[in-house]
């Protein structure tokens, strides 16, 4: 009787374990297919690096960086931040539809920033490439 009971318990456990694995495998396949078919937006900057050359200390350098959404879903920029307080970014606040363009405007105050400069602006969005950067570089000459 114990042998039959042991055999029955093993059979039930084997059935439960194999059923659980098959269900998980199907769920993983469905999740992967959903992720592949639900591609998002993509941020691509025309010129991600701008070299402003040489400026005198105290000059303000401004640059508008244009990006295009090359993906298939709207892109929303959620955060745009500069590497230091002397650089101020502003950006398109509305969703950028696929195939359309948006802007990030960067203003660099060179006051007190003598020498070679490289300012990095980090852009966070809902796009497939969630974090991208643009750069402003050049040299600030003393007054």
TrEMBL record:
Keyword terms, alphabetized: Signal
Stretch forming the signal peptide: 1-22
Alphabetized InterPro entries for the sequence: DUF1573, Ig-like_fold
One family name in Pfam for this protein: DUF1573
Keyword Metal-binding: no
The protein's name in its UniProt record: DUF1573 domain-containing protein
Organism in which the protein naturally occurs: Sphingobacterium haloxyli
